[in-house]
Write a structure and sequence with these properties.
By secondary structure, the protein is α+β, with helices and mostly antiparallel strands. The protein is built from 8 helices and 13 strands.
Length: 267
């Protein structure tokens, strides 16, 4: 999609960004944080057997105009187009997510943003533990975000992103800097949106993060994470409860999903 001024304004309205964008640190930080707080991670398309299209216009229509969310490919491809339109230097990378990296493929998309000669990991599509700030691509330093601390380490020639939870470092994903083309993302997207082995095709997943709070939904289990507090867990008891949470906590416009109830009843 060719991002014009009209589309850029529509995106800024969608995420509540009111500043004047420039190729600078503050713009990058505020766009990333506003995006994460406004646009949810959600897998309703794979769950309902609706194709996940990576065409730029399709992503824009779904996320910006229809007030839906998406998963990593949709989030990060949209953000890449926005940042490039502003003038940032950006490229997409592929990583291995999950707790057993040796048994999963490269199915997570992230962005590498170069600003003033330095490279930053920017990711708005990693669900409940998504980094809420750009992370300098420099190993072995602790980096603070509005939510948790992160670090990037570099074992075995790859980079690994870790988050500090309850005093312990937890692996999120590995990635490298190899050049990727859109076909690489399309192959990975086809797997994550269609394979019965992928959680997104059989389990409802939604997440949204803002400063001081993270919200996650897995089928009927809602979790709310806040710093220095016990995790609040709530079991939803009906399809109507799930739909209400998707609308009020995750900001998803449900009007275009009339068949969702069928899939929620089977969750």
């Amino acid at each position: 999609m060719a991002m014009n001024d009209v589309n850029l304004k529509q995106y800024f309205d969608r995420i509540g960004f009111a500043g004047t964008p420039d190729v600078g640190w503050d713009t990058l930080v505020h766009i990333q944080q506003n995006h994460i707080a406004s646009i949810p991670f959600e897998n309703l398309n794979p769950l309902m057997r609706i194709p996940v299209e990576l065409d730029g216009e399709a992503i824009f229509e779904k996320i910006v105009r229809k007030h839906r969310g998406g998963y990593c490919f949709e989030h990060n491809l949209l953000l890449q187009v926005v940042l490039e339109r502003i003038g940032f230097t950006v490229r997409g990378l592929l990583g291995r997510a999950g707790q057993e990296p040796e048994s999963v493929g490269r199915t997570h998309m992230v962005l590498l943003v170069t600003l003033e000669g330095r490279d930053y990991l920017v990711d708005v599509g990693y669900g409940g533990l998504v980094p809420t700030g750009p992370l300098l691509l420099e190993p072995d330093i602790v980096q603070t975000t509005p939510n948790e601390d992160y670090r990037i380490i570099s074992p075995d020639g790859e980079y690994r992103l870790e988050i500090k939870l309850n005093g312990h470092w937890k692996r999120l994903y590995e990635f490298n800097l190899r050049k990727q083309i859109i076909q690489d993302f399309q192959v990975a997207n086809w797997y994550t949106s269609t394979s019965p082995e992928c959680i997104f095709t059989h389990t409802l997943v939604a997440a949204r993060s803002e400063q001081g709070a993270r919200y996650t939904l897995k089928d009927y289990e809602l979790s709310i994470y806040q710093p220095d507090r016990e995790i609040e867990r709530r079991t939803l008891t009906s399809v109507d409860d799930v739909k209400a949470v998707l609308e009020t906590i995750f900001y998803i416009d449900m009007s275009g999903l009339p068949k969702l109830e069928k899939y929620l009843r089977n969750a």
